[in-house]
Structures are given as structure tokens and as C-alpha cells.
Fold:
Amino acid sequence: MMQKLRTNSDWSASTPMLPAKGPRRLALYRALRGLIESGQMKPGDKLPTTRDIAGRFGISRGAAVAAYEMLVADGFAEARVGAGTYVAEAVPLLPLAPEPQVIEAREAQAPLPGALGCSTADETTLRIFRMLMNRHLTQPSARHFHYNDPAGSLALRVEVAAYLKAARGVACEPDQVIMTAGTQQGLDLAVRALLKPGDPVWIEDPCYAAARELFEGTGLCVTPVPVDGEGIDVSSGIAARPEAKAVYVTPSHQYPLGVTLSMARRLALIDWARGAGAYIIEDDYDSEFRFAGPPLSALQGIDGEGRVIYLGTFSKTLLPGFRFGYLVVPRALRERVLTIRRLTDRFPSTLAEDALTEFLRDGHFSAHIKRARKRVKAARDALVAALRSDRLTVTVPEQGLHLVAELDGAEDDCALVAQARAVGFGVKALSPLYAGPTDRRGLVIGFSGFEPEVLAQAARRFVAGL
Ligand SMILES: Cc1ncc(COP(=O)(O)O)c(C=O)c1O
Structure:
């Protein structure tokens, strides 16, 4: 039953409705303030008790008390000791902030088979991680209880440096390694340490969208440089923008086309960088997944003059949710990068670092990569077999976790993406990854994170509708 309220002005006939969503105290504050500002509640009127008003609006007493405190704090009401709360004699003229928008929080949608960036971690890997994380939670190191090195733990950097020397030919010592929250943070740190808005940089064309967006968003002057069968065309870059201050490249496995930067181009790129005093930002995101023959060594190992900033990630090898990657920087840049890192997110998660250190040190990582490589190769083969269609030209990649199914230049790859998704195949269009108009059309398709048969079924459903 509606309660009888003790107020001087009768505003009960126009009792406002509170919006269904959002904090109750704010909603009541806004409703009462509206009554006061519109004159329906007059200066000197006594407000109902918080118990009365809470019952009337069906909210908690605490919310009503908080709303009254806000009215008093903003000068719309006065609390008189022992007598209650009254509308202020002089109501202030304050602009009311716009109604807060209640945005429905939505979980990211689960990726469909064929989506890029899905983890290769299997049950064995997860079980070992569970055990390592549990151990570090049960016997926590003193490190977790205070602030740490912005470069990441020395023990982990020792492991990463040893791995990079042995597996990728990267010439580095642990002091050059900086642990990051994935490649994306590494790129951001590199850009902020090396460049300023307006600086000219080269990117590959087509390019990894997250890198291009970062460069453009930071105000860099981006020159897209064409990629052909040998990787980035260094002479085109020199012809277009010889004075560029940096270049972003994916030499092991160009994203998205999948070509490997040839040795001649590697040497040409390093030569230009030395002459121009430019930096090469080398994103070596998926080189661990090589299915035939040895990989070419990283550019960083060929350079020898401190012109390369090398980026790697555990997103591809382990899982993106782990948010671990690394930068290898020339010594001259180390302090600059670390200062920026300290001022942004201070240092990496020490708990996760300790688990990862043991995972690397005890040989679990190399065993995991061997298992993952085998599974991913089986998924690649199943996908390739399922993609048989006159309309698709598939080059079987010898490396990485995705392939490109090329289409005729007259096809609409964006429309085909929608068609694929409708049958549960989560592919990406190639043409939007180019900086401008292109006659290249294709579908970029991932083959990690799903069982071969699940992936093949999704691909077959798509091909059947072509
Ligand atoms: C070219 C490229 N670099 C790096 C990454 C990994 O990014 P991160 O380490 O920030 O997860 C990806 C992921 O899709 C990628 O495609």
C-alpha cells in the first residue's frame, strides 16, 4: 500500500518513475532534484523520511540516505539535526549532467572455426600451467608482494633470451629483453620510444590491421609499401619515402599473405635502415610453427648495428589470454622503453611470470610446441582438403597458423565473409587489409584452436554453398 507522506507541497500526484536500470541512489537523487527544480517541491518543504521514501519507490533505505546526502551536498536540501531534511531555501541553479547511458555488457562472442588467433594449448599444457600456478600461489615468492622490474623478472628474461638465440638466431642478452603484455604493447612501447607524431614510417601493404591502426592513431605518417612474392618491396619504399624513420615488417611469415622475406630483401632492408638511421620493427609472431625446412634467422640476428627492434608473443604459441610477449631492444633504447613501461602498466604479472619461467626452463615449452605443431599441421591439411573449389586458390603455407584462399579479382570477399559466417565458418576478408583499392581478393583463414574435423566441416559447409 502507498504510504502517507509528510510533505508540505503535495507532489504525490506527480511521483516520478525511476528508470529501471542504473544505481538507485542516483535515480532517486535525479527524481527529487527534478521535483525541486520544477517547483513541485518548494523551498522549506520537508522531505519524507528516508524510510518513507525508500518504501514509496521500492528501493533500499541505504540508497535513499545516499540520495539525500547528495541533495544536501549539492545545496538542494538542508539536514536539520533532529528535525529531518528540508528543501533548501535558496535552490542552486546547476546544470544537470546528462542521464547516464546504461550499456549492456556483452561477452565477446566465441570464435567460429576458421577464426584467427585461437590458442593451440592442449589439456597437457593447461594441466602443467595449473600445477605451476598453484605452486606459486601456495608458496608465493616475496616478489609478488612488492613492486618489480618494469623489464620483467630476470629469471624469465634469461629463459627468453636463451630460447631466442637458439631457436631464432636473435643476438641478445637478458638485459635487452623486455617482457610485455603481448606484441601490441611491445609495438606501442617501440613507437613511443622511437617516434613522434608526423614521423614517416613504412608499413607492409597489406598489413596487420592492429599495427596499422596503432601507427595511424599515434599520428605517424604511414607509407604503405607493396608486398610481393619476396616480401616487402624495399626499393618501392625507398622510392616513395627514403627518409622514413622506421619500418614495420613480419619477415618470417608476412601477415596476411604468408610470404617469407627473402635474404636479398633482408639485406636490402638492413642496408637502407643503416643508411637512413631508421629502425626496423620486426614482428616475429608465429615463427614457431614451421612445417617444412628450417626458418630463416630473424632480421635482428643479421643486423649487428642495433637497428632492429624484435617483437615476439606467447599469444600464438600458448594462449592470447595469457598476455605475454617480449621486445628485444638495442641497448641504446632500453632505458627509454623502460621509462615508458614503468609509467603505463609498471611491470608484468609476477605470478604468471614465475609459472612461465618454469614452463620454459623445465622443457615444457618445447614439448608443447612439438605437440602443437603436429596438431596445427593436421588442421591445416584438413582445411586445405576441404577448401577444394574452382573459386578458391589455396597456397599451402609452410609456416604459421593461417592461410589465404585467393579469389578472382571480380569477387566480393567481404560478401563471402558474411556468407561463410552464416554457415559457422569464421573467415576474414583480404582486401580490407590493403591500404587502398586493390584487385587482390581472398579469405584469410586460421587453422589453430579447432580440431581438424570441426574445421573441415565448417569449410565444407561454406564450399558447398559457393
Ligand atoms: C601480425 C601479428 N602480430 C602479432 C600478433 C599477436 O598479438 P598479441 O601478442 O598482442 O596478442 C598477431 C595476432 O593475431 C598478429 O597477427
Observations:
- The chain is about 40% helix and 15% strand.
